[in-house]
Amino acid sequence: MDNAARYPLCGEDHIDKLHEQKLLTYLPGEDAAADAAALFSYLSDSTRLRLLSMLSASEMCVCEMADILHMSQPAISHHLRVLRQCDVVSFRKHGQRALYSLNNNETGETIRRLLAITVGNEDRGA
């Protein structure tokens, strides 16, 4: 069987114009798509996911995260800087310590839910 028979081509009028217009409302603009792709790429790093997992449970300082992950503080700070730039985590000063936490914005809440699903810890919810 040839490919043309297995995969027939759609005709010119295969899409209802109203349906097509509705679908186009779900299509992000180029800038929004680039922003989303950047966020997904930042989240694709396993160290950052481990940091987010910890921060979904509790706020922490860099030295605590470095100890738990057996990494240097500068390496942890680098990953946290990336996550701050995409508005996923924030920090507050407590004396000389900076305490990091997962943001309570829509992105942070979505990450909490995704971590609960993928890691399987249902106690992560906000």
Brief overview:
The protein has 126 residues and is mainly α.
Structure description:
The protein is mainly alpha-helical and 126 residues long. The protein is 60% helix and 11% strand. It is built from seven helices and three strands. A hairpin with a 2-residue loop joins strand 2 and strand 3 (97-102). Helix 5 crosses helix 6. It is elongated, with a radius of gyration of 21 Å. It starts with a helix and ends in a 7-residue tail after the last helix.
Number of helices: 7
What share of the residues lie within helices? 55-70%
* Computed structural class: mainly alpha
Q: Sketch the major β-sheet.
A: 3 strands, antiparallel
Low-confidence stretches: none
Q: From N to C, what is the helix and strand string?
A: HHHHEHHEEH
- Please report which band the strand proportion falls in: under 5%, 5-15%, 15-25%, 25-35%, 35-45% or over 45%: 5-15%
Shape: elongated
**How do the strands line up in the largest sheet?**
1-3-2
Query: Based on DSSP secondary structure assignment, what is the total number of beta strands?
Result: 3
Mean pLDDT: 86
